[in-house]
Amino acid sequence: MQTTLQALKNQFTVQWEKQQRADLHQVGLPREQTLAALTWLKEHTPFVQLTHMSVVDWIEEDQFQITYLLMNPRSYDLLMVCTRIARSGATMESVHKLWPQAVTYEQEMNEMFGVEFPGSPRQGESFILEGWEDIPPMRRDFDTVQFVLDHIPDRPGRLSINTREFIGRKVGEKRLLHD
Amino acid sequence: MSNKPDLLHGVPEIPAGSVPHANGCDQSCFLGERPDPLSYKEAIQTVKNWFRANSLWVIAYGTGCGSIELRPLGTARFDMERFGIAMRPTPRQSNVLIISGYLSIKSLKRVIRVYEQMPSPKWVVGLGSCTINGGMYWDSYATMKVLDLYLPVDVYIAGCMPRPEALIGGFKELMRMIKNGETKGYIDYIERLDWYRENQKQIIKDWDLPDYSW
Prior knowledge:
The structure holds 2 protein chains of 2 kinds.
Chain A: H1 2-11, E1 16-21, E2 24-28, H2 31-44, E3 49-58, E4 63-71, E5 78-86, H3 102-113, H4 144-151, H5 163-171, H6 173-177
Parallel strand pairs in A: 2-5
Antiparallel strand pairs in A: 1-2, 3-4, 4-5
Chain B: H1 28-31, H2 37-53, E1 56-59, H3 70-74, E2 85-88, E3 96-100, H4 105-117, E4 123-127, H5 129-133, E5 155-157, H6 164-179, H7 185-191, H8 193-203
Helix pairs in contact in B: 2-6
């Protein structure tokens, strides 16, 4: 792990790094170096397997963070490569040439966050949502409760209770006062 | 109470004296005034309902987490086959549709096709809180909240999740309703198809189903 990290720092601009667990390191890379760094990691280091890809919505900074989770299949070490892209008109280079399974992740990220991956197959097709007309639902500016109230019929009479009070009445207040 | 099964439950009794030559012979009814033919129909219907209630064939299609409770129900411990309930692989062979737990809008489209392909008479069991009022998915953008707007539900089984015992209770209730002829959901679905279609199209945005999936 340390050898790979050092070599990565020598070749690319590592903006930040953080050790999350003994077997999990995070590195932040600038957007333009990410694809090159991922290619290099796959070709020249033991981190050959793409385990996961995801998006984090940093709405306050007007950015999306794309996260690639790579694994070393011999030692089970994990390396998390993070990169930030602009939130408006979000576009990222596809990695489906390196790892074919990335197609599905990219399709889902496109549908749920609206991040475009030009060149990736099946972009824009319905994956989980069908006939979705609103903004992508996993973006943080999507108001889920308002959407549900507007679009999905409800059965009247649904009650909302305070669990703590309800359980307190059931088991007696004394037990809850001590915790 | 005798131990005999109550085969002709609900058949109106023929009042004594309406058959003039009643002498204990089965043919006595041919000799004189016959009972109302409607009661024959009703008796046949009752027998049919008794057969139907004791051979519920469930389509093995789980829409949500509730279907995890169908596995112990189907296997040795709770063993639903002792009630005449069996799992079938296709809608053409089954007459009970269990909506097990949350039903996403994407699944709803498939469920409508499955339901319409099932031969009548057919019944729908809503399993879990999610089918009743949304349950813990009440604020999800991807699931429906009230099942009886989209399909005619005969029995709801509340719980999150209901255990297999509760499912057996729901099936017993469904069997009782079938025997008494109280389940009219599949007729209601045909009679008010426009109303159901309107509700279905309200949440299924890319509607591409045929007029009816025969």
